[in-house]
Amino acid sequence: MRRRAFHCGHRIPRPGGLRLQDWRILALAREGYSHREIATRLGLKYQTIACYLQAIYQILGVHCLREAIECAPWSECPPEALLNLAEQRAGQADRSHPRF
């Protein structure tokens, strides 16, 4: 059986820079999460994350995730992208210590 390749052609780079979901993906990547972990956390498919990252690379003019994280204009990052990350981290801490 042949594997189907996914196509990201529907994600055309947009003027005006990164959107909220792009920032969420970059923030999670900066925290060290893998593509699959990011997909799980955001409730998306792995292929969707790959398409987002390709669009992010084009917008930022880079070729890899490390460059995207380094070159992203973090001063323009909307606070809600990082706020959601902090809330997720706090929720994990609550679940990791069961209360008796």
Question: Any overview of this molecule?
Answer:
The chain is mainly alpha-helical and 100 residues long. The chain has a domain at 20-84: Arc Repressor Mutant, subunit A, CATH 1.10.10.10. The chain has 5 helices and no strands. The chain has helices at 20-30, 35-42, 46-60, 65-71, 79-96. Helix 1 (20-30) packs across helix 5 (79-96) and helix 2 (35-42) crosses helix 3. The longest helix has 18 residues, at 79-96. The radius of gyration is 15 Å and the shape is globular. The chain starts with 19 loop residues before the first helix and ends with a helix.
Order of helices and strands: HHHHH
Q: Provide the helix percentage.
A: 55-70%
Q: What's the CATH first level of one domain?
A: Mainly Alpha
Unreliable sequence segments: 2-6, 95-100
Distance between the termini: 51 Å
From the alpha-carbon coordinates, what is the Rg to the nearest angstrom?
A: 15 Å
Structural class: mainly alpha
The CATH homologous superfamily of one domain is called Winged helix-like DNA-binding domain superfamily/Winged helix DNA-binding domain
Strand segment tally: 0
Largest sheet: none
Average residue-wise pLDDT: 80
Strand content: under 5%
Number of helices: 5
CATH topology of one domain: Arc Repressor Mutant, subunit A
Which second-level CATH architecture of one domain applies? Orthogonal Bundle
Shape: globular
How is this fold's topology laid out?
Layout (H helix, E strand, L loop, with lengths): L19 H11 L4 H8 L3 H15 L4 H7 L7 H18 L4
